[in-house]
Write a structure and sequence with these properties.
The protein is mostly helical. The chain has 9 helices and 4 strands.
């Protein structure tokens, strides 16, 4: 059972050990990603006394990034964790969130934005060279409460569930899949998400094993 008596944010559960690292491979060019990594490489040592991509002290690094950013830690005593979402719902949420937050940069043209940003390879971009089976913890968004219980046990801390940056747009059809069906693009979306779907299915099977 999930512990509820004293849930606290992850930053409080691990004081002085938590770093938010943002180098989203979906949103940036190779040049921008390289610049982001250099920025973290030189700025974080002043705050934490360590290069975030080559850390030696126990800490938690969370955010949006490719595991390849931390390839230098391979073979060391490092635990890896991530959450996966059903790809069609992930794509819909991503497209509509981006179009709300950055209306001058992103449209709601699902097929165009998917191709432009190569979102059909989205999960592979985050995993990098890592295989799903290499992950120490796998969470599933569709089973969030159960996954959060397991994450608490994995971290050895009680956590509080906080919703941040919600997408204001909610399809009246209840799900993005239903929305895409009504738009008559679901076949194209499913085809584009086929690689992500394969990874998601593997992750879900491993999470349930």
């Amino acid at each position: 059972m999930r512990r509820k008596e004293h849930p606290i944010p992850i930053e409080d559960a691990f004081p002085e050990e938590v770093i938010e690292y943002y180098s989203n491979p979906l949103e940036r060019s190779m040049l921008e990603l390289a610049a982001s990594r250099i920025r973290y490489r030189y700025s974080l040592p002043r705050k934490y006394g360590s290069d975030v991509t080559n850390i030696s002290n126990p800490m938690i690094v969370y955010g949006r990034f490719s595991f390849d950013d931390f390839a230098s830690l391979a073979g060391k005593n490092v635990k890896t964790a991530t959450f996966f979402r059903e790809p069609v719902e992930w794509l819909g949420s991503l497209i509509y969130y981006r179009s709300e937050k950055y209306p001058n940069r992103f449209s709601r043209d699902v097929l165009f934005e998917t191709g432009k940003h190569k979102l059909e390879f989205g999960y592979e971009k985050f995993l990098g060279k890592m295989q799903v089976s290499d992950l120490d913890f796998i969470g599933i968004v569709e089973e969030f409460s159960e996954s959060l219980n397991r994450l608490e046990a994995f971290l050895g801390r009680s956590l509080v569930e906080i919703h941040k940056n919600p997408t204001r747009f909610r399809p009246r059809q209840k799900t993005y899949r239903n929305l895409f069906e009504e738009m008559k693009i679901i076949d194209e979306v499913e085809f584009l998400m086929s690689r992500n779907q394969k990874i998601y299915s593997e992750a879900r099977n491993l999470a349930q094993s």
